[in-house]
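User: Structure with glutamic acid, tokens only please.
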Amino acid sequence: MIRERFAPSPTGLLHLGHGFSALTAFEAARCAGGEFLLRIEDIDRGRCRVEYEQAIYKDLKWLGISWNEPVMRQSDRMPAYNAALAQLAKLNLTYACCCTRKDIAAALSAPQEGGDPVAGPDGTVYPGTCRQRNRMAATNAIRLNMRKAVDHLGGVENLSYFEQDQGKTYLDPEMLIQSCGDIVLARKDIGTSYHLAVVVDDAAQEITHVTRGMDMAPATPIHRLLQALLGLPTPIYRHHRLIRDDAGKRLAKRHDAMALGKYRDEGKTPQDIRNMVGL
Ligand code: GLU
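Assistant:
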């Protein structure tokens, strides 16, 4: 049985790109006689708003999308994330990091580090300052020691995932170590991170197919690695094209001009939305 999901963050109004993503996943599930689930990714309490969550339900229903109840809300899932974090800590693969953003920027610009900061799929690669040191200050984050994680698995060259348009895709240990680095597993203010939560929740919801935008594709090797470390199953991935604005820029939450609700208020129909995104 195929299970797809749509996992928006209620930090703004859904726009055309979200509509495309949700419709693509929903229809893939429906055509295969499968199930479609909804997950509200609201771990960042400071940025999430109840009214945006309500707007998500309204917009999706308007598009004709229905989902299995109950909706999973990440803010209810802290115990599951803590358990996963404890599992990784028990393997001795995590460490407490007390760096602030400023500390990281300073370490990266120090001459002995050499060269320009590396920006990988997870943003600037952490220079590893806290990897060796005993914690001196308050913990700001829990990080994964990426090299240790790769070694723990006896290398990752044999680990793969299925990318719908590209076939079997193997993990590259050097890419993980050099371009992703010691990723954050839990931020002090949030208690988890996007990567940890998404992997734990896709497994809990028994998602077999992850349909999401191409902008998320670079995070997939990190997700595959975490699945291997935590002993979780790996879904099939499909990273679809992105809907862009007239200037060719990827739509962001600030693109309220392209919000689904705005089109609805203007009298557009769900079919108009489909036409606009090429469905
Ligand atoms: N919550 C993410 C977003 O709104 C999507 C995460 C995912 O599909 O893996 O962009």
